[in-house]
UniProtKB/TrEMBL annotation:
<protein>
    <recommendedName>
        <fullName>UDP-glycosyltransferase</fullName>
    </recommendedName>
</protein>
Length: 416
């Protein structure tokens, strides 16, 4: 009986430091599941530090600190910080991108061109934020375009974001042309959500031909002895939101709904807690100081510790902006699904998270529907109180959707 040979994949990624950002966590989960799916991997990363993923060859790309672009980027930075002369906007309006990005791109490009010993079948570029440095580099290697998968994690440029996030960046026309080139030159484009692919196809029609959906992946963290912080009692009714409350992700409705829930259910005050973990969430700090049932982290918490608390929480919260649509698949979504605990989804009526959970999913509301949210919390509390051990999400379909098994199918990998 013949056995299929796993395909070779070269991954070019911004960062594999899971404590760097939620984006890095998601990219690492995808890389690990590619390995589990049977691919032979080589990972080039621009994390600016030596990081190793077990069983995967990882090569750190070094920044070229001797180039003209490096000198110009540092000169621009010194003028801004020491002389208060900000050239960022006029430079990006002229060139489309910063000197720092150009130097980063060239550093990645030089490293990739010097690598000869690995002949991949596929080349996957992964980024985070609004940088897309690996994509910039791959555009300069036309001989690789026929096996390039360009992963588009978010809308780009910013004027292609849905409201209320949209705004015009300096050099937006050149940034738009950059994405147009990706849509036309990469053999495949990949999106974490169906709604994001449909959204970006409005601006770049070729994505409809090349686009595939690779959702954020579940990457189980090995179990070990857990030391929870003093503010987290796993036996209590903890409603946990992990991640920064950026921009339009306003927790005001949630907090007021939780306080109303406590007024109606005074017996819950001894066990119910609303926790906001991740960064410096100024929006809820004052409330947390005044209400012992609300907790807001004041400093960074490691990914592993947050992940452990997500696993032990009674309810995990996904909070999105007030908008007509949210085409994003939140980075925390696979962690919440993997935790097997009910999800309180607060966001637009049309969103990728709601599409996946189902439009009949009971624990959903708009972020400002305080009365409805309070009622949902009360319903969740009642079910938890009645049977905390059977209080689970129970969505094996979603677990499979974000697993290496489904990833294997998407990439049509024949592996025995």
């Amino acid at each position: 009986m013949s056995r299929s040979v796993p395909k070779k994949v070269l991954v070019v990624v911004e960062s594999i430091n899971v404590d760097d950002s939620s984006g890095a966590k998601g990219r690492v989960a995808l890389i690990k599941n590619l390995q589990r799916a049977g691919y032979e991997l080589v990972v080039y990363h621009y994390s600016q530090k030596d990081i190793h993923l077990e069983g995967i060859r990882c090569i750190a790309i070094r920044e070229n600190r001797k180039s003209l672009m490096f000198f110009l980027s540092r000169l621009e930075r010194q003028l801004r910080h020491k002389l208060n002369v900000d050239l960022h906007k006029p430079l990006e309006e002229r060139f489309g991108f910063s000197f720092t990005l150009f130097n980063d791109r060239n550093s990645i490009l030089d490293t990739l061109r010097s690598s000869k010993e690995f002949n991949p079948d596929l080349i996957l570029t992964l980024s985070q934020g609004g940088r897309f440095r690996p994509h910039h580099a791959l555009l300069k290697i036309p001989e690789w375009h026929h096996k390039w998968i360009a992963y588009m994690h978010d809308p780009y440029p910013m004027h292609h974001y849905p409201k209320p996030f949209t705004w015009y960046e300096p050099g937006y026309a050149k940034k738009e042309n950059f994405v147009k080139q990706i849509s036309e030159r990469a053999e495949f484009s990949a999106f974490p959500s169906l709604l994001l692919k449909e959204w970006m196809t409005r601006f770049y029609p070729n994505f409809s031909k090349t686009g595939i959906i690779i959702p954020h992946q579940i990457d189980p963290v090995p179990e070990k002895e857990i030391n929870f912080p003093e503010y987290f009692n796993p036996a209590h009714f903890n409603l946990l939101h992990a991640g920064n409350l950026l921009g339009a992700r306003n927790p005001k409705g949630l907090v007021k709904a939780f306080e109303e829930f406590l007024k109606k259910n005074p017996g819950a005050k001894g066990v119910a807690k609303l926790l906001f973990l991740g960064g410096h969430n100024k929006r809820v700090e004052k409330i947390a100081r005044e209400n012992e049932n609300v907790y807001s982290s004041r400093s960074y918490i490691s990914f592993k510790q947050v992940y452990q608390m997500q696993q032990a929480a009674a309810v995990n919260i996904i909070l999105e902006a007030k908008a007509d649509i949210s085409p994003f698949l939140p980075g925390k979504f696979p962690h919440c699904v993997g935790a097997e605990k009910p999800i309180l989804l607060l966001g637009p009526a049309k969103s990728e998270a709601r599409r996946l959970l189902g439009y009949n999913y009971p624990y959903w509301a708009e972020i400002d529907e305080e009365e409805k949210i309070s009622g949902l919390i009360e319903n969740l509390y009642s079910k938890w109180k009645k049977s905390p051990n059977t209080f689970v999400l129970n969505r094996p379909d979603l677990q499979r959707y974000m697993s290496e098994e489904y990833l294997q199918e998407v990439l049509k990998l024949e592996h025995s």
